[in-house]
């Protein structure tokens, strides 16, 4: 699978809620850099993150645009997150199944046929406004 196709499949798995499929595309030492907080290194921590997200949010991505640089190892994806806030998190507003539509983006790296880094960005103050 070409690197861009790998990245597209990663997001297709996300939209299908195929967490095992997503994990299979990641390097064992995946570096996950979330919008907030410390980077997570390794599949086990990424799997814990996915489980937490699945319990707390119901999300799908639309309007995806994929960009690749010349070497085919680094990618960007712009998308819209369509979500439901199911379970409250510390320091965030209470969850009452509020819906939200939020623009976001991510940067990814691919080496040796696996995704080695996922960095995600979105406007947290806007998200808080949308669910408040």
Task: Walk me through this protein's architecture.
With 132 residues, the chain is of the alpha+beta class. It has a single domain (3-131), classed as Roll (Nuclear Transport Factor 2, Chain: A). The chain has helices spanning 3-16, 19-24, 43-56, 124-131; strands spanning 26-33, 40-41, 57-68, 74-85, 98-111, 114-122. A six-stranded mixed β-sheet has the order 2-1-6-5-4-3, with helices on both faces. It is globular, with a radius of gyration of 15 Å. The mean pLDDT is 97.
What is the total tally of β strands? 6
The 3D shape can be described as globular
Residue-averaged pLDDT, rounded?
Answer: 97
- According to CATH, what is the topology? Nuclear Transport Factor 2, Chain: A
Q: Look at the helices and sheets and give the structural class.
A: alpha+beta
Number of helices: 4
End-to-end Cα distance, whole Å, is 42 Å
Secondary-structure element pattern, one letter each? HHEEHEEEEH
Number of domains: 1
Nutshell version of this structure?
This protein has four helices and six strands, in the order H-H-E-E-H-E-E-E-E-H.
Looking at this protein, list some descriptive labels:
single chain; 132 residues; alpha+beta; Nuclear Transport Factor 2, Chain: A; six-stranded mixed β-sheet; 4 helices; 6 strands; 43% strand; globular
Element layout with pairings:
Elements: H1 3-16, H2 19-24, E1 26-33, E2 40-41, H3 43-56, E3 57-68, E4 74-85, E5 98-111, E6 114-122, H4 124-131
Parallel strand pairs: 1-6
Antiparallel strand pairs: 1-2, 3-4, 4-5, 5-6
């Amino acid at each position: 699978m070409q690197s861009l196709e790998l990245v597209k499949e990663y997001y297709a798995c996300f939209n299908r809620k195929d967490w095992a499929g997503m994990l299979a595309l990641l390097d064992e030492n995946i570096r996950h850099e979330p919008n907030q907080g410390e980077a997570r290194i390794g599949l086990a921590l990424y799997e814990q993150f996915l489980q937490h997200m699945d319990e707390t949010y119901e999300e799908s991505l639309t309007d995806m645009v994929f960009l690749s640089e010349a070497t085919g190892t680094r990618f960007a994806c712009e998308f819209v997150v369509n979500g439901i806030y199911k379970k409250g998190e510390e320091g965030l507003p209470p969850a009452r199944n509020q819906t939200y539509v939020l623009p976001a983006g991510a940067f990814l790296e691919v080496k040796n046929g696996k995704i080695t880094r996922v960095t995600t960005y979105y406007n947290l103050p806007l998200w808080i406004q949308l669910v408040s």
